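Meet my pick.
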Amino acid sequence: MSSALEQTGVSEPIDSLIDRLQPKLKRILGRYRVPLEDAEDILQQSFLDFVYKRSTIYNPDAWLLATVRNRSIIYWRRRRTQLHEAVDVSVLDVMAQPQPPNQGQVALRRDLERVLGELPPRSRSLLKLRYGLGYKPAEVAAQLGYQQSSVRKLTSRCLTRLNRQLQVLGFSEDDTR
């Protein structure tokens, strides 16, 4: 009976498990380039889940490493979505009907139009239909000959490309809000 408990890692104190896995956990977080303050949150949540599920975990090392890896991937997916949403809002604002703009908005609009002009024609068309004219994904798909299911992914790619070009110009998330 004790050998089964030792295999599941129940008998190993959590402190020694953390000490033993620390280099591997640091490598995972470093590979995914998770900022230090967010890495601490990922580790805390992973260890908390481990404590709750410890009695059902067969291989604690593999479970903890996989959990931290998965949480790192999820972290960047959320960050990417937040960045796209910030760009989405600014694209909608800039491409909306003209209103009396202040100097900052004029510069942003000019830079955005220049960056949009550098995008491939199909990307530019997709963004103008989706955000400039307010088409729904199904309408964009019909206009451009895409599958309706692929419009969201293509829009995400176009926004990523647009965001990269805006960052090259020196814009950050804070500038687009």
